[in-house]
């Protein structure tokens, strides 16, 4: 499993970005993929995840604004981010696990593979 994020950038408040996470391996369809973010001086937090069946979960602070989806034919998970706020500024990480769980986890310890991160900056 090798995860690579892209799509970060700088936008004004209210703008949109779409992040992509591509896996170059052969087990992508079996992966539960999560998106985490870390702002300067803060802990890394899980914000969205999608499992191999397409079930999703979101952190409350992004519900209704962010949408996670996957395209197994392209080995890609997307994070559509709308109505961006300055507090969304952070480095965003894609992460994955092959572990099968009853419920989707947004805990950092639930994931085994991590991308290098992509920066998102939202200006007011």
Structural account:
With 124 residues, the chain is mainly beta. It has no helices and eleven strands. It has strands at residues 3-6, 9-12, 17-23, 32-38, 45-50, 56-58, 66-71, 76-81, 90-97, 113-114, 118-123. The strands form two sheets. Strands 2, 4, 5, 6, 9, 10 and 11 form a seven-stranded mixed beta sheet that branches. Strands 1-3-8-7 form a four-stranded antiparallel beta sheet, with no helix packed on it. A hairpin with a 5-residue loop joins strand 5 and strand 6. The radius of gyration is 13 Å and the shape is globular. The mean pLDDT is 96.
Shape: globular
Q: Could you describe the largest sheet, including whether it forms a barrel?
A: 7 strands, mixed
Total strands: 11
Strand content: over 45%
List unreliable stretches of 5+ residues.
none
| Cα gyration radius (Å) | 13 Å
Question: Roughly how many Å apart are the termini?
Answer: 37 Å
Computed structural class: mainly beta
- The run of helices and strands is EEEEEEEEEEE
Mean pLDDT: 96
Question: Roughly how much helix do the residues carry, as a percent range?
Answer: under 10%
Short description:
With 124 residues, this protein is an all-beta fold. It is built from no helices and eleven strands. The protein is globular, with a radius of gyration of 13 Å.
């Amino acid at each position: 499993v090798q995860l690579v994020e892209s799509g970060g950038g700088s936008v004004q408040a209210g703008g949109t970005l779409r992040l992509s996470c591509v896996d170059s391996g052969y087990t992508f369809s079996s992966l539960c993929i999560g998106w985490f973010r870390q702002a300067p001086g803060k802990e890394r937090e899980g914000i969205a995840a999608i499992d191999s069946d397409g079930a999703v979960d979101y952190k409350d602070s992004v519900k209704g604004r962010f949408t996670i989806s996957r395209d197994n034919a392209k080995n890609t998970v997307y994070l559509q981010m709308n109505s961006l706020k300055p507090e969304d500024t952070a480095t965003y990480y894609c992460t994955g696990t092959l572990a099968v769980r009853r419920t989707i986890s947004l805990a950092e310890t639930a994931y085994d593979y991590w991308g290098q991160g992509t920066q998102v900056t939202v200006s007011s």
